[in-house]
């Protein structure tokens, strides 16, 4: 055995590394900002009640440089989104929806994700992202069939370019990569934007999707909404990374950290990422730092794992109020316009409520219709069995009705 | 968007010549890639290397590195990406390098591949093929010899087929790729180098998935088998002649859909049945097959339906695998237990 003496800080020549063992990418440009990128500031309300930001200070704001039509659109979508969340949550209490995972507090990320896409682009939502699907223009009733329980996916993925809401975590991210890759092979101008939560970043499919996307330079944008908790587990028990956006560096794609309650910052960052993907620059990972003001779903008790004070801090950073305050200061909105927007959202909610209160009537034949292109003989037998069961049930019911009538006659009623 | 394609072969003057199953599979991929630009092959080492079993040999050179794509080493990612490709109208053919290496992709198979058509009310069919080399008999170390077909059989929404002959390897792979539904093609890796006289230029017409075939007619009992166990059963049937038993051998070919008609017709003729496969017996494919046979043929049966299978153990080290795999003697022992006394 030979003993190697440590040379310390000497000028002794070191062996040259093998040629392939060099980093191919300077990681620095891929690193996210130290703090979330924001444009609208941090305070959703003026310091003193009744006080307004001066127009002079507002004019210095980045919002002043933005297209007023876009700002109004974003505001309208945020107000409608807030109302949609409240309405869907209310419908769970009435038993019209089996469950609803709310995005109250996260509306900005949902809206921005939908609005940065062009018609031909695809959205890959997770189960929490119904609001993004609605903002994309899909019939809100169809987006809720999964949660209502009458159909798994109510909308047509090809017609809407929205993939089914994915309930398993992060497993839809590789689909986005594959679809974007296929579109590029076909020479089509299509970007896929895939959404998941902070918990989803721990899943293997998240890592495999990011790696594939970067290796293939697929036109994909990954949007992680970090709302602080995976059901009850806080972020520091989920990851030891400095931020979730940092995970991008290991795959060789840029990571962006953005204030998830700042719809304007989100629109800019996601817009840049979509443009990079569209122009051949490959994938981007965007982490939107936000907060879920409601519980995980209506079935969850958030008071078991977080303090009311924490929720209040985030309530003061409300995405709807943040933009509202800015637009009031800029004179793009006034109180009348705000009232008008809220009224429109109210009408939207009433329409949705009325439609969801109508009874869904899924047909039992649907059970066998879409398992295979053509039912196997085995399934055809089972479909026949169910048909016979239902027929017997209907005959039994008719018989019971007739018997009831006879009873009524006999008793002279 | 995805309509059923009819598989046709162009008759030429090609004469039958000794061909391996691996070559027939390669030919099937080449023909599918040639006929339909939507077909894409992807997996680990399928490109430059041509696959560890050389099933994709030469395809990348002929069709380019995108039509035959070397992926990062991540099975869930491969299959997940294939789902997205199929969503966009391609027909991906995925190679899972070995049976046990496909398990990381199992969530994609169960939660998405098998269910996407159903989840979307028929709007998003997934015409993708998952090729899985499976089974033992090649002296592989652990995690290289699993018979994993039952996992896929137990998942509604998948077709599960397995060839045992050179002609079927070609035919079933072509039919799988042409199918508008996901198909798991279990390839018996110990038959990859088995040869048969076959005309690569004039392959037989492809049958629809879901048909079993009688490989050897007989009167005394039916051996129900598939994939790697077919040659063993045929050998057992020949050996059984000396015992005075005339065994019928049915090659199931398709486990899902299951060909109840062919199987029941055979067992009704013979009155006795043994299911033979490499996978474990407990909760294995044979249990389901025996139950179906019993339900349909009870009054024709002279004996209970028996199973000859691998033991209920993790696949053994290669030096012990011959003790585990069902061989001719174990099959003949089972046949001997079919209550022949009733007739004699």
TrEMBL record, chain B:
<dbReference type="InterPro" id="IPR029061">
    <property type="entry name" value="THDP-binding"/>
</dbReference>
<keyword id="KW-0560">Oxidoreductase</keyword>
<dbReference type="Pfam" id="PF02780">
    <property type="entry name" value="Transketolase_C"/>
</dbReference>
<dbReference type="InterPro" id="IPR005475">
    <property type="entry name" value="Transketolase-like_Pyr-bd"/>
</dbReference>
<dbReference type="InterPro" id="IPR009014">
    <property type="entry name" value="Transketo_C/PFOR_II"/>
</dbReference>
<dbReference type="GO" id="GO:0003863">
    <property type="term" value="F:branched-chain 2-oxo acid dehydrogenase activity"/>
</dbReference>
<dbReference type="InterPro" id="IPR033248">
    <property type="entry name" value="Transketolase_C"/>
</dbReference>
<dbReference type="GO" id="GO:0000287">
    <property type="term" value="F:magnesium ion binding"/>
</dbReference>
<protein>
    <recommendedName>
        <fullName>3-methyl-2-oxobutanoate dehydrogenase (2-methylpropanoyl-transferring)</fullName>
        <ecNumber>1.2.4.4</ecNumber>
    </recommendedName>
</protein>
<dbReference type="Pfam" id="PF02779">
    <property type="entry name" value="Transket_pyr"/>
</dbReference>
<feature type="domain" description="Transketolase-like pyrimidine-binding">
    <location>
        <begin position="19"/>
        <end position="194"/>
    </location>
</feature>
